[in-house]
Write a structure and sequence with these properties.
With 273 residues, the chain is mainly alpha-helical. It has one domain (11-228, 235-270): Four Helix Bundle (Hemerythrin (Met), subunit A). Helices cover 44% and strands 4% of the residues. The chain is built from ten helices and two strands. It has a two-stranded antiparallel sheet with strand order 1-2. The chain is globular. Residues 208-242 and 246-273 have low confidence and may be disordered.
């Protein structure tokens, strides 16, 4: 399905501490800098992270249903609309408030993650990594960890202050993202027993290696073997997210698209460090 379980819960406080240290060091001009998210500056992106805290506590911990879908509204449009609504209202908040609120709500969100059974079904699907099967809590939680980490990196890119990219924080992001490859590549022709190997630059991967494989269960002539060394660090992106926030949940066009030939099995693992 989605590979070996991954427990990222201890990393949320570490990632948040790095974010709060960054935010407290920003000046007024930094908060107005544009980010890679269209139409959002740093202030808006930090407000979106606050939205993530409130959304998961309200919906996951408290069972609050939240805003309803509009007539004929698709899931990606719903996510974009609710994200924009929150960011627009949050422009009334000061940078100090946008820093203080995650500092207060973060430990409560940590308690929520800690109380979940990692193997139990999550209330939200992760269609890009667990196609046709209920997503376990550990995968939904890992997906949320990538949300926080990626947006922090987008803020850091905007203010030109790199950080939070050590192996402890980065490896789980790569481990989570690579689980999308079997589903993403499943419709591509491949010979039976074909595998996909991902090699990461030493700077990104530390001393370890990380792979993902997908057994397609199909027969076709093997493709020629090629090796392409990485030439530059890949650009940080929230793709395949909707705009700059939120993976498409169950029912989105991306998640409901025809799966193509079924993958017989998937797995991901970490090599020796």
């Amino acid at each position: 399905m989605a590979g070996a379980p991954l427990d990222v819960r201890p990393l949320f406080p570490v990632d948040r501490s790095a974010l709060l240290d960054l935010l407290t060091a920003l000046d007024q001009a930094d908060w107005r800098r544009p980010t890679v998210c269209p139409g959002w500056d740093v202030h808006d992106l930090v407000a979106h992270l606050l939205h993530d805290h409130l959304r998961r506590l309200s919906g996951g911990r408290d069972g609050h249903p939240g805003s309803p879908f509009g007539p004929g509204e698709t899931l990606p449009r719903f996510i974009t609309r609710t994200n924009e609504d929150f960011v627009r209202v949050s422009r009334q908040l000061s940078p100090r408030m946008l820093t203080d609120l995650p500092a207060t709500l973060g430990p409560r969100l940590d308690d929520f993650w800690a109380g979940l059974d990692p193997a139990a079904p999550a209330g939200l699907d992760v269609s890009w990594a667990a196609l046709g099967a209920p997503a376990p809590n550990w995968l939904d939680t890992a997906r949320e960890y990538t949300e926080f980490w990626v947006h922090q990196q987008q803020i850091r890119d905007a203010v030109e202050r790199p950080g939070a990219t050590g192996p402890e924080l980065l490896h789980p992001v790569l481990d989570t993202f690579v689980r999308a490859l079997p589903h993403t590549l499943c419709a591509h022709p491949a010979h039976g027993g074909a595998t996909v190997r991902v090699l990461l630059p030493v700077r990104a991967a530390g001393r370890g290696r990380r792979y993902a494989t997908a057994t397609t269960g199909r027969s076709a002539p093997p493709p020629p073997r090629t090796t392409t060394p990485p030439t530059r660090r890949p650009r940080r992106s929230s793709s395949p997210r909707t705009r700059c926030g939120g993976w498409p949940r169950a029912g989105s066009p991306r998640g409901r698209r025809g799966a193509g030939p079924r993958c017989a099995g998937t797995r991901s693992w970490r090599g020796p460090r």
